Amino acid sequence: MTPPRAVAERDPGLQPERTRLAWRRTTLTGAAVAVLAVKSALHGGAQASGVVAAALCAALWLGFLGLAHRRIGALTGPRPAALAPRVAVTAVLCTVALAVCGAALVL
């Protein structure tokens, strides 16, 4: 049986840093998609549907950015809490909706 003290002194290694970097990379990718969506919407004249889709892409990216910022902040502690299922589902939905909006602008 492991003494309770050993559990409290867990060395997480570089795992929290790798997770923070993964959140940052995903946020950067979402920013690139949002910028390309705006560029695509404005290319060849601005149509109302394109502007709405680009605005939706920007809003989804901002929502994901907020989620990522909260998660990165939560990972700074010595023993970060697990990601809540509700937050995980919201992040996935933001990512999928951003991809769908980007694809709608391309087609």
Automatic annotation (TrEMBL):
Entry's transmembrane regions: 21-42, 48-67, 87-106
Keyword Transmembrane: yes
Keyword Transmembrane helix (UniProt): yes
Domain DUF202: 11-72
Localization, UniProt: Endomembrane system
Protein topology in the membrane: Multi-pass membrane protein
Keywords: Membrane, Transmembrane, Transmembrane helix
Main location: membrane
Protein name: DUF202 domain-containing protein
